[in-house]
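[Discussion] Sanity-checking designs against the backbone

I'm trying to build intuition for which residues belong where. Below is a structure token string of 286 positions. I'd appreciate it if someone posts a full sequence so I can compare it with mine line by line.
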């Protein structure tokens, strides 16, 4: 088990636990530091912080921001965010507005293919302000349109499928700017999932570093050992701090648990070294 899990989701976006229950589960799994990183929303951070002292865990306020880079959707996790920062709050509101339109458009496109009521079904499953493709997938599974969520994504919700709607998200520099203005640290999430060529991934990480991005999620719940090795090389090449996160969404996915992550390779500098250094300086001042 890892003491740090810096990527998790609650029902504020597409997870299935409340922020407080997520924190309690992480503590029971012996996670020492948990980041709540809901998609395009920081509304759960306050609730997640409340039970943390009682269960002996530190909570990092975060968010997973949606970015369009060269026609590809990329996710950037912001860690140690101030959710009240004006630029971040306005930017996330803009992304949520697009998400709302996208959800309605997915419903319209599925209806055109003979699947009525998908928007309303997905909306009924959403506990927060965001209706995600995952909510549509769960609803379509309940309608017996596929055997599981992965099957639904494959046949309905990805590129060139009936319910696919291209993203119109934040620009890379824009999203990193919002995170930095909010006092946070920007980290590219699960980089191996984007199916980018090696050259294109290098261009992404180079641009990310140039605009102030600081970290790379080297260890992820979706990364293989080979992925970890490859991302270790990229982190060293671009002088990026290393992060680790399960991308946990809920107990219905038993193969993915909070904190169940390999250790970061020792050659890397972990992103949490920033906070440990700050804490040490503060102790020195005191």
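Best answer:
Here's mine. Compare freely.
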């Amino acid at each position: 088990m890892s003491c740090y899990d810096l990527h998790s989701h609650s029902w504020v976006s597409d997870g299935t636990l409340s922020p407080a229950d997520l924190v309690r589960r992480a503590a029971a799994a012996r996670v020492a530091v948990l980041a709540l990183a809901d998609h395009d929303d920081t509304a759960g951070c306050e609730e997640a912080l409340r039970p943390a002292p009682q269960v002996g865990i530190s909570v990092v306020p975060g968010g997973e921001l949606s970015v369009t880079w060269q026609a590809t959707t990329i996710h950037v996790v912001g860690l140690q965010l101030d959710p009240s920062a004006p630029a971040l709050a306005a930017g996330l509101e803009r992304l949520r507005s697009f998400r709302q339109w996208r959800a309605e458009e997915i419903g319209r496109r599925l209806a055109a293919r003979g699947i009525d009521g998908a928007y309303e079904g997905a909306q009924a499953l959403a506990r927060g302000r965001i209706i995600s493709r995952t909510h549509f997938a769960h609803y379509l599974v309940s309608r017996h349109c596929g055997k599981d969520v992965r099957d639904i994504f494959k046949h309905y919700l990805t590129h060139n499928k009936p319910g696919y709607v291209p993203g119109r998200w934040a620009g890379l520099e824009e999203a990193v700017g919002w995170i930095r203005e909010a006092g946070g640290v920007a980290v590219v999430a699960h980089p191996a999932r984007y199916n980018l060529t090696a050259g294109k991934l290098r261009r992404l990480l180079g641009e990310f570093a140039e605009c102030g991005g600081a970290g790379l999620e080297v260890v992820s719940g979706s990364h293989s050992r080979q992925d970890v090795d490859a991302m270790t090389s990229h982190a060293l090449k671009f002088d990026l701090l290393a992060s680790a996160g399960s991308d946990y969404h809920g107990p219905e996915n038993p193969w993915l648990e909070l904190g169940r992550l390999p250790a970061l390779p020792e050659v890397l500098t972990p992103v949490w070294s920033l906070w440990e250094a700050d804490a040490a300086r503060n102790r020195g001042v005191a």
